[in-house]
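SEVERITY: medium
COMPONENT: batch folding queue
REPORTER: lab tech (J.R.)

DESCRIPTION
The queue accepted two submissions in a row. Attaching both inputs and their returned structure tokens so the on-call engineer can compare them side by side.

ATTACHMENT 1
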Amino acid sequence: MVLDQQIEHIDLLAQQVVEGFIIGLHKSPFHGFSVEFAEHRLYNIGDNLKHIDWKVFGRTDKMFIKKYEEETNLRCQIVIDTSSSMLFPEDKTKANKLQFSCLATAALIKILKKQLDAVGLSLFDQSIYFHSRCKSNTVHHKMLMTELERLLKYVPEQKSTNTANVLHQIAENIHKRSLVIIFSDMLDRISDSAELFDALQHLKYNKHEVILFQVQDGKYEVDFDFENRPYEFIDLETGEKLRMNSTQLKETYIEKMAEYRKEIALKCGQFGIDIVHADINQGFDHVLLSYLIKRNKMV
């Protein structure tokens, strides 16, 4: 599989830094079986008889133990923005923002799987169109990886985003305290920034730990490093076009983008949200490794 080939070396990353990343995050002092069923396994001598599924025994004449999601493990909901702006850059020689997010998510799933932690996935553009609850069983992991494979081959469509509304929904849909990891360029309309910050605060109000990976192409979207010549700039979400020389726009663009990024970082700091400025030109593995090492030192 293409995805497996691209994240093959993530196993090494996980062995090096995952322990410090996971320790201390939402660990419960309570042990034992929870109420959320995960899967069956064959009965072994010494297993507690009260966990045998007698209905299955009646049908198959074989004893199976009900396995449940452990409440002591971390629950992680990964949220990916799949709107059209995430398809930038349209360059087949490197991953775009959406592909970067998919590869980083696949790596995180492998890390969480190693720790026997539960993971869920939410995908959105104007609304949430895919949402899986946090689970830790193998079938669930395979399903999530298949969904990421599909996204890696995503055919561009003109889809806008409504990040604020979606994050409010995520906050309401996750009923248990979780680690919420968001991959988004956060390029909603600047005029809607107050609504966006309210949604981020909603997640924190519901006691979730939040990590925001603001995924951007640093060269073009932050530094506006275009050659000094005329361009036709196209809004991938609306199709709106603007024709002008890049130098006419550069100074104002850099100033506005810097202000917006600073405002997001400031609000995240106020809300206790960890923000990571993820430049796709650095590669998903470098960005994740740098963050996990930083997190390891903080724990």
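ATTACHMENT 2
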Amino acid sequence: MAADDAVERLLSAEAVVGLGGPVESAGAGAWIVGGAVRDALLEHEVTDVDLVVAGDPEGVARAIAGSLDGIAFELSEEFDTWRAQGRSLDWQVDVTGLRDSTIEGDLEHRDFTVGSIAVPLGGGALIDPLGGVGDLEDGLLRAVSERSFTDDPLRVMRAARLSAQFGWEVEPETVGLARTAAPRLDSVAGERVLSEFLLLVGSRDPLRGVEALDRTGGMEAALPELAELKGVIQGPNHHLDVYGHTIEVLEGVLRIETELDRFVGDSASRTSDLLSEPLADGIDRAVGLRLGALFHDCAKPETRAERDGFVGFRGHDEVGATKVADMFGRLRASRRLARHVADLTRHHLILGFMAAGESPTRDQVYQYLKRTSPVSVDVTLLTVADRLAARGSGPVASTEMVEAHLDLASKMVAEGLAWHETGPPRLPITGDELARQVGIEPGPELGRLIERLEGAVWTGEVESASDAVALAREMVRDG
């Protein structure tokens, strides 16, 4: 898009219209910078707006909030930034004080040239002293200066995230600067690192983002759990080391997302709805599944054992679940997100063992759903991607085993969706009443009895209170 057209598009965007009055009333000169300008140049929708003001950012933010019936609060004391946002979170404007005597000087303090372009809020030509428009056209992510990453090491993560989000190539000199600064990521608050990483994983091309994270040194510094997978050799069922396998599992998850009809048949629409459900920390279950792909084998380095030519990773599921929980704790993730990804890691082997045997009984289906809930559908999809990525010469990688696994997984997704939508089976009688009629005291024995009866409800053996009592008496009699 031509520069003049981009300026017009930007200034007429709904997110921008209406800002001029309150900013002017606060007595501050202002420029639109960053993502809003970039999006206008890329002909994307302009949503959130960043302003640089030659004045008091607090006063400007409060003026905007007052004019648009929103609220204002300090976002960063370190960077002199305030935020005005709608009460229902439907809009936001970040306001930062000018970091130099001129807007051109301010832009030289920013991270990448593609984000160092400004447009006067009152109208005027693009201000592009660092060649950001040209880099945008060329799809290059270039650091503004040698201090770009030393000023804020988090920009190492941001470079990878922007590469994933927009398909940009990180310019070689910028890669070198990032690698030099990457070890300082350990000084960045965990929640800031997590935020960038979740945006990367949820982007349109997370594979590109992970590769960029590796090249810039961000993976080794911030996510050693991934970097440590390199060079860990596996057994004959696998054709790649653990790291290469992990990348292929992520690729498989992305493929499943776009080909749900193929993998889950008539359950595709309902599966899509489930994956779109909000999970935690601003992501949905689809992104949670991508995280599961990245970390499900994270404990293979420490559990690897080789004996008589056989390579095994006994316990990497349970050890990995603990490792995932620790990692997300370090990154200050919510308990729900940490638990979700840990559960995917803990349960990712179960269906493979089931697929190797006879068709599961209704009771075995129940036990699988009970054990893997509430991630039954998610982890089943993960096992599909995991199995497709095992293309070695061993028996697990055989065509027959792969087809059996995919067939069982499709059926189990349908079962898991039903469980998710209706909840686990419930007895048609209370525990106290059951205990009274069967003649046992409340306690562990009753708890075990109820658990067995709930399975019977799932399999259809118990449909009424009288059925439950009769079967319970039989179970007690038979011990």
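NOTES FROM REPORTER
The longest strand covers residues 70-76.
No errors were logged for either attachment.
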